Records
---
Amino acid sequence: MVDKVVLVNTLEQGLDYLHIGAADQNLGLVTIVEALHTQGYRDVELFPDKPYEVTPNGIVEENSFRESLVRSVGDAKNVVFGVSTTTDEYYKFLFVTKVVRELFPNATIVAGGPHFAREVLIDSKGNRYKDPIEIALQEQLADAVVVGHAQPFVDFVVKHDGKLSEVKSPGFYYMSEGKIRGRGKGKYPKVSQLPYVKPYNRLIRTLIHDGCANGCDYCSINKGSFNIAPEIVISTLERVIKEQEIRFLDLSDSNPFKPETFKFYQEIFGYLDGNDATRTIKSSLIDPSLVVDPKQSEELMMFLLRHLFLTCFFGRECITGEVASKIGAKLRGKPKSQEQLDKEREGLRDFISFISQFLEGIIKYETLRGSVCISYIFTPFETEQSVVDTIKEMEMFHKMSSTQLTVDPIFTVLSPYPGTRIRAKYIDHIVDPEDFVKLGVRSNVWSYDLGASVVFLDEALDVLEKLREDYSTSQMIKELKLAAMRGFSGKVKKPKHRRERNFYL
Ligand code: SF4
């Protein structure tokens, strides 16, 4: 019998580079609480109330962290800790699990989250690299690892009373007799209400339907698709939005309005029409391929405006067919052609000008402003021309901003996350593939043998670092132009030693 489950959140500041603001809770862990409650298990606690700051040197206010953790566990004997992490937050995971081990040597630590994916990585010289599960189990950072969604964790606690060797559910991994046992990915658990992170400035974040058939090679959304029953989504949203006077609703769904699932959202938001949920300002990701066909795009725009989806996030990623084929930026499993990418650019332009005119002309309320965010990924496969053209495109979109609509391009640097195809494809060009502390969206782990583009990535990361100091988009574009000139000039010497990541999320 498990006396208590303590779920430890390592996500501290939100994901600002993706325009996902800070929240005190982690949606994955909230989902586990909901799933355990649904099974009648209630001795579960989210820890801490507000995430602690963790730097490369350790947990800030570590004594307070330790004291609160001891208080959370109380006098429970058989305790299971669930610790979730992304690759970007991995260094925090290491500090947190170390403290948990020291304080509670007899407790069971189960790791999970997007960082943990199985993979077979062998370079051209025949060197084999460990995956995150092997590292976590062999180095005893965790006693078990969940890959995929949380059903195996729920089974471990509820059905198997915390006995590792009894869990046969897919997605549950542990060590026995020196070998890693386990297979597959965990399913999304049964929940009786929609999990959401608790209101933060009258905003809630949730995920109601996930999965994307495009299959991009760099995509780390690898858990498998699921959806929550519409009646559960509707009843939770109706109640929470009304009771807690919610103003903003963030959907984290990876590709919500694709043809296969658009109807699902039309039904849900159509049903919520006319009550408090209608008046919440919503934000969502949108696949740029959905604004290419004028008829499809118009239907989508009318839906978005009707339901106040006023913050739209487009993953434009790259602008040339060549880069798309190198990084596997795909549409329905096939790399995007130049023709498709050009159509997406034009579709986005029409989308922005339509939304802008609509907001200018029809919505006269001062407070109702829209925002379109377009994200790009700079890769080690850029040429000077592709970078210059990308920056020009960013500038063109940003200039479409109006009094009612801001248009902000943002960028990241290609990161070969665990489990992604791009990692296996370019393993020979990744420095220290097992060093997950260095891997992340703000790091450049690409080898300089790929050319000047990798020097440019260093320069681009410096721009990202400066962005933390409250830069405007126009300044970012200006800085990027200089970064491109420096990166491709041949004058910046490749550093003898790779630059350490010197700033953290
Ligand atoms: S379109 Fe986006 S969500 Fe879909 S596979 Fe590509 S990167 Fe992932």
---
Amino acid sequence: MNNAPTANKNNPIGTTPADAWSAAKGYAGVDEQLVESLTGWRRHIHRNPELSYKEFQTTDYIESELNKLGFEVRRFEFGSGLTCDIPAAADGSSETDVVALRADIDALPMEETTGYDFSSTNEGVCHSCGHDAHAAMLLGAATLLAKTPPPRPVRLIFQPAEETMPGGAVDCVQEGAVEGVDRIIALHCDPHRVVGDVGVHAGAITSSNAKLEVTLQASGGHTARPHETGDIVYALSTVATGVAQVVDRRIDPRSGTVLTWGSIMAGAGAPNVIPAKGTLAGTVRSASRDTWVELPEVIPPAIRAIAEPYGVEVDVNYVQGVPPVVNDDACAEIAGRAVTDVLGEQGVGEAVQSSGGEDFGWYTEEIPGVYLRLGVWNGESPETDLHHPAFAMDERALVIGAAVFDRFARLDR
Ligand SMILES: [Zn+2]
Ligand SMILES: [Zn+2]
């Protein structure tokens, strides 16, 4: 699979989204009705986006669509999202080799600017990460699996709250979402890759993250007399620049670790007042799973050691985020075969580890899995990134995703 072309973004091999679309439409079980349903599901969910852990109507909708296919669901006890177990075909099938297919279903707190006639009707909330498409593709896979029962049991996971830290996957794992499951797959829309190019990669594919908040407090006072209080602004600045230096010296430089402050707040604008409180907030990301484990042991003590000599009270809140998603070699190989079966060899693109986080990493901590990047760019329009208010996708990618899910579930190890 890795001898496949590196990125098809500039179309070096001549595949067009139209070619890829017609290849996927020729996949077993796909018909015009499914193609139409995929668009319908995606647009319904797109029009009615819901924030993390509040995907109640989305869950109701998914449940009713699965019921129409004759499947029962199990809703997660913590509120939203569900799993759906599809039994293996009656004969000649394995009862033990269970495959899970996962889609996330939450939207983001931002205002949509796509101008679609199916734009968000929920003010200040929109599907700018493509999770509407993920849910639709998994419903598409359910339709294919209902038509021709799979050779092994399949579990569908419609997962809430991917956009939170440490992510809804933690709750799903706690509720047994992957208990008894042998391998798992997820797809994520990639707007920098053309329709028909699916990025497959063995090894780490996303990075870890964590959130860091530092609060410094002292009595406050006159800038003429910093020695009579704790100088919050000075101490904050020292922490802001000092911690990165500690990370540089204490953490393996090959780990791709970066600490970035996104917010620093202190004072009310007066040049001659030492404030009583200040805060720093940022994120820590790492390409290495070992470093992800190590960082909470290194960073909070370093912050306390840097700030305390200035006579300030130090409070550090280190919120551990997701581990990197590490794609299992065997699962990546199966996924490469699945993509080839749907699109031909030219559909298998290379993918590199991104610095972004993804809570699918909680599943790959438990069981082998693979996370693919699904091209959704039409190759012509300006590219819009994920989490952009005008994020757009070419809906021809939906049938490709549904078919790849289905094929992965049918292939033997
Ligand atoms: Zn996102
Ligand atoms: Zn996402």
